Amino acid sequence: MGQLVNGIWEDSWYDTRKSGGRFVRSTQTFRNWITPDGSAGPSGSGGFAAESGRYHLYVSYACPWAHRTLIFRALKGLTDHITISVVHPDMLSDGWTFDDSFAGATGDTLMGHRFLREVYLAADSQMTGRVTVPVLWDKQTGAIVSNESAEIIRMFNTAFDGITGNSDDYWPEPLRDEIEAVNARVYSDVNNGVYKAGFATTQNAYDEAAGELFSALDWLERRLADNRYLLGDRVTEADWRLFPTLARFDAVYHGHFKCNRRRLVDYPNLWAYTRELYQWPGVAATVRPDHYIRHYHYSHETINPYRIIPIGPVIDWSEPHGRG
Ligand SMILES: N[C@@H](CCC(=O)N[C@@H](CS)C(=O)NCC(=O)O)C(=O)O
Questions:
Q1: Which PROSITE patterns match (predicted)?
Q2: Taking a C-beta distance cutoff of 8 angstroms, is the pair 144, 136 a contact?
Q3: Which domain holds residue 222?
């Protein structure tokens, strides 16, 4: 694993020395928005109009951030309008690669590159930063629109509605403030919280992250006792941002990241809720345990130096959820 510095690939693991053993996720570099008419969005520059077939999404089935974008692509009827390439689950010294020898890894179906970093360099030959998935690519201008999943799902939520005729809204105006508040805690303590626990290199950093994670799961469990979804009776972006972490919890985070106070299946409401979201039309195909179990255990040498892939818990996703 590594990063680009002035266009040159440097192979290095996350440096937690300056942050007291804490993992600090860096912010993303490409922050433009696709809009219905190509006008500029909340950040970046304009020129990215919603058009069928114009955009390509680079993803990993292992990555929870990329997973959100795949879910929104499915929910919003965008599979015929936005093409995808899926990287190999192993992220080693070359970062994400387009080796297509793992079932479901497609290679770079658009440009035929070997490494994801080449996609970044095609957009900016002097790029400095991490080479992450997801990446939303504009075929027309040869630019990266965005590599920030939180913003890609907002674009997918509305930008293509005129093309797809799908106006389902997962970020409804009256609920936005509350969605933001739930997202903030879920991001910090759950989505990123599992990484903070797993990548901690001091006991203190781990204790802090694991404590916050399980307090947040207890809070979510209580919330879902009286509410079908996080915001009440309507599924929103907040649910789809939580789901990828819950889907990986028992198979990956519980063991590999030492998030083991409880398993997801020990929380009756959260577990039934996760099954309901899994069973939502189009969602199951985005959940690839083969990719995420392989990715985490094989790629994180500092955590699992012998790269043994565990046998894993048996998880019955098809059990009726009984909610609603
Ligand atoms: N804020 C980004 C985070 C993306 C991210 O960190 N992706 C991970 C995979 S789960 C990655 O590609 N990491 C490679 C690296 O850090 O070098 C987003 O939500 O899109």
A1: GST_CTER
A2: yes
A3: 173-287
- The per-residue pLDDT for range 64-108, each reduced to its tens digit, is 999 999 999 999 999 999 999 999 999 999 999 999 999 999 999
18 plus 153 within the same structural domain: yes
Q: Which atom of ligand 1 is nearest to the CA of 149?
A: 20
- How far apart (Å, rounded) are the C-alpha atoms in residues 303 and 44? 37
For the CA of 130, the closest atom of ligand 1 is: 17
> 232 in a domain, yes or no?
yes
Which of these is catalytic: 14, 187, 195, 298? 195
- Cβ 87 vs Cβ 96: under 8 Å: yes
Tell me if residue 14 is catalytic: no
Ligand 1 contacts CB of residue 244 (under 6 A):
no
* Tally of domains within the chain: 2
Residue 266 lies in a domain: yes
Does pTM top 0.85 for this prediction?
yes
Both ends of the chain: CA-CA distance in Å?
44
Among candidate residues 97, 71, 15, the one with its CA nearest the CA of residue 299: 97
